[in-house]
Structure formats: structure tokens, C-alpha cells
Amino acid sequence: MNSPIGQPLALVTGGGRGIGRAIALRLARDGFRVIVADRDEQALSEAAAEACDREFVLEAARLDLTDREAVTDLIERNQPFAAIVNNAGIFNEKGFFDLDPEDFRRAYEINLVALFSLSQTAARRMEAGSKIVNIASRAFLGARNHAHYVASKAAVVGLTRAMAMELAPRGILVNAVAPGLIDTPLLKALTPERLAAQLALQPTGKAGRPEDIANAVSFLAAPRTDFITGQVLLVDGGKSLGGGMGL
To answer: Which helix (H) or strand (E) holds 192?
Structure first.
């Protein structure tokens, strides 16, 4: 399964919907041949249909990232990837006293260990000039009611920096994007009162769009971006600055 000459190959995990789909569509627009990996077959079908409507092509690959054999098979059946975007992850709210060790194990297994495993397997075959972009979260700086998620995303930031140092001699650049409050179905689940409270903490006064994250990934994955590695790009409307509207 080879790309046309001159068309680099990209893989986006968790690319069936939301931020992942926006990233996949943007990379396709940028000229990548894009493989979208997701566990949700319906989401994959919808992503492919949206791409078709926009006159792009997304190749769907149903994949459980915890199945290392399946991950290895996907990587080895394709030419070396020019860009890997580790977007897949899980999130749920739970107060500190309600958490148990299994909550941490599950968050780390999906958000960190699966990301590491796929990246390690792919990096063995990637060529100089290739890019790995990990999707972290502004929450790595700290947040209430999901300590397990915060810890897993802080670990993603640490892993990104370690990967950048170890893969630099191979010419592979590794960075992370840390989204803040983004307008996805998860946001729509908030009550109007809670949404208003969240928006009040945004210096910009609004939530971001999946396309805002896709634009950041597009920059870091671009062939012309060749002197940035080990960095975390916060795309959070300024929330990481502290304060909020009118403060």
C-alpha cells in the first residue's frame, strides 16, 4: 500500500470524530495521504464521507491501540510514516476521593502506554524529517475532578520531551499540542451554568474549535517545520495565563 510519489503518509489515531477528524482533514488538505485509525467504525465511515464531500480521501483503519499486534501490523503494512499524530485518548470526570487505582491504570494504558507503543514501533521505520505530534491537554498544568486524566497528560508531556531527545539523532522531531476548552460533543454535555463558568475563565471569552488544534498540528507536522522539537504548544485561548475575563 504505497503512496503516490511525493505524497507523504500520515497516521492520525482517534481520528474518527472531533479533534482527530479535524486534524485528519487538515493534513489531507495539506497534501498528506492520511490513514485514520479509530475503534469506532461508524465514526470512521462518517469521517471518510465528510472527506469525500470536501474532495479529500481518508483511509479508514479500525484499530484498538491496546492491541500491539494489530498496531504493528498496520505500521508494517504501510510505507514509513512521515507524520504520526497521537490523538486517541480517554477522559472522564471523577473527584479525587472517588478515584481508584483502576481509573489511573486505564487512563495511563490508553493515554500514555498505547501512545508510546505505537510511536516506538513507527519510529523504528521513520525517516529523517518525519514528525510525531502528541495531543496532550492544558489540563497537564492541573485541574479539578480528573486527577487521573491530568496525571496521564502530564506524563504525555514528559514523554514528548524524552522522545524528542532520543529521536533527534534520527532526524525525527517530536512535539505536543495541549488543547484547552474546545467545542466538541463533550462540551455540549455541560449545563449552561457550568459552560458559562468555564468561558469566564477564558481570556478570549470563547471556546476553541477542533480546527484550531488541527492548525497547530498542521504547523508542527509540516515538512518546512524543521527546527522545533520537544515543545508543548498550548492552544487554550490563553487560559494557561491565569485569570479570566475582566480580571
So the answer is: helix 192-200
